[in-house]
Design a protein that fits this description.
Helix content: 40-55%
CATH architecture of the largest domain: 3-Layer(aba) Sandwich
Low-confidence stretches: 136-148, 394-421
Bound molecules: adenosine-5'-diphosphate, magnesium ion
CATH class of the largest domain: Alpha Beta
Largest sheet: 8 strands, mixed
CATH topology of the largest domain: Rossmann fold
Mean pLDDT: 85
Number of domains: 2
CATH superfamily of the largest domain: P-loop containing nucleotide triphosphate hydrolases
Strand content: 15-25%
């Protein structure tokens, strides 16, 4: 019994509460622990029961669901809220996500949609808790390696809890920009293990070596072995490609990834890592070992919703604001919400922005050349170089923290426009 998902139902209409109870009653792993008829009671019951999931109606007479969600998100943050509303309430969707809701169900919804949403939200909350317990002891003091090896390279991991926001595009171009503007060795790691597409973006031979060539011999991995599977790109960067098939990705563990990244950072000034939207062990490792996690988002409500969940996880893992940095990609395309809304809602600054430029990107991809080279005068390329400057400036003055990051180093114009080096 203890393992059942404990649910609080909140709706002012008796029939709705009864219907929900009936649907949930069919699920052996779920149970309703309390039923509230309004926002005030919802807050009271949430504090008392600390449910695993709260199903919340929006329109209720005494206190509406959005206000109740806001209070619950602050007082009982471990109880995630799923908002229920009728169709056409777009503004409600926006407001409830800003208030802290995790999911949204549009009435009338099917039994499947309901239980899937409950399981999904509960699953993420569980990952958060487990990781918190695992991570807690190591948060006591800064890691020894960082104290002992001031010269090691910086691992920059691109993450986003949502697909299609530009991780692969931006990580590839940032790696090239870092190499161009610092002249230091850079390796790009396609950590999107099951779905890697850096090989395509960089126009690499289908026969090129990949991380899958290390499967079976991870125990012997050292700098030399690693070097033999890195691919040299014409831009001057090295690339560790993802396996050619998704099945091979399953043979690579978090520990393997850790060893690879730790070895690479001893020889490369910057290790730029692409990921895929997942909280699997391999991705969590790429996040753990990173010095900086560039969390890419677009200014859309779904993106905001997912980033919020990630920020909560990141906080529990002990990642501070210097480690997890938000990047608003396609900043000017009309996604519906403003950067200031997002900053207010997440209580976080967005220190980096990248404009939208579909034309430059498509042309660059068609030519198999990163746009920071083919369209280096475009605003989108300039934004990437600014990001590179901030990250490389920070590498020499890591202790100076966010203040340094905000103040970008002056751009070395000549170098940027002086051709590939
Ligand atoms: N700043 C941008 N301006 C215009 N299009 C962009 C921008 N960033 C990404 N895109 C486009 O968005 C799509 C998804 O990008 P991709 O890098 O594959 O995302 P992800 O790796 O996060 O799934 C691609 O078609 C890419 O060209
Ligand atoms: Mg990708």
């Amino acid at each position: 019994m203890a393992d059942k998902i404990r649910i609080l139902v909140v709706d002012d209409i008796v029939e709705t509460r009864e219907n929900l109870a009936k649907l949930i009653g069919f699920e052996p792993d779920m149970m309703i622990v309390a039923s509230a008829d309004g926002g005030k009671q919802a807050v009271e019951f949430a504090k008392r029961e600390r449910p695993d999931v709260i199903l919340m109606d929006i329109n209720m007479p005494d206190m509406d669901g959005i206000t109740a969600t806001e209070i619950i998100a602050n007082t009982v943050p471990e109880s995630p809220v799923i908002m229920m509303s009728i169709q056409g309430e777009q503004d409600y969707l926006r407001r409830s996500m800003l208030a802290g809701a995790r999911e949204f169900l549009v009435k009338p919804f099917s039994a499947d949609e309901l239980v899937n949403a409950i399981r999904h939200v509960h699953e993420i909350e569980k990952v958060k808790r487990q990781r918190y317990q695992q991570a807690a002891p190591s948060q006591q003091q800064p890691s020894l390696t960082s104290v002992l090896q001031p010269d090691r390279g910086r691992i920059i991991t691109f993450f986003s809890p949502k697909g299609g926001v530009g991780r692969t595009t931006i990580s590839t171009n940032l790696a090239v920009a870092l190499h161009q503007s610092t002249g230091k060795p850079v390796v790009l790691v396609d950590g999107s293990l099951p779905f890697g597409d850096i090989a395509v973006i960089l126009n690499m031979s289908p026969k090129a070596k990949t991380i899958a060539d290390l499967v079976g011999s991870f125990d012997q991995v050292d700098a030399e072995v690693l070097e033999s599977v890195l691919v040299q790109h014409s831009t001057g960067i090295k690339v560790l490609l993802a396996p050619p098939t998704p099945e091979a990705a399953e043979l690579i563990t978090g520990a393997n990834i850790k060893k690879i990244l730790e070895t690479l950072r001893e020889h490369y000034a910057f290790v730029v890592v692409d990921t895929w939207p997942s909280f699997q062990e391999q991705v969590l490792t790429m996040l753990d070992v990173a010095d900086v996690i560039l969390t890419l988002m677009t200014l859309e409500i779904t993106s905001l919703k997912n980033v919020r969940v990630f920020m909560e996880i990141a906080e529990k893992l002990g990642y501070d604001e210097q480690k997890v940095q938000l990047v608003a990609n396609r900043n000017d395309s009309s996604g519906g919400i403003k950067a200031s809304d997002v900053e207010a809602s997440l209580a976080r600054k967005i220190p980096h922005t990248i404009v939208s430029d579909g034309r430059a990107l498509v042309l660059a991809v068609n030519r198999g050349v990163p746009f920071v080279i083919s369209h280096r005068d475009s605003q989108v390329a300039k934004d990437i170089f600014t990001l590179a400057d901030k990250l490389s400036g920070a590498s020499t003055t890591a202790a100076a923290g966010t203040a340094t990051l905000q103040k970008a180093a002056p751009r070395q114009g000549l170098r940027l426009f002086g051709g590939a080096r």
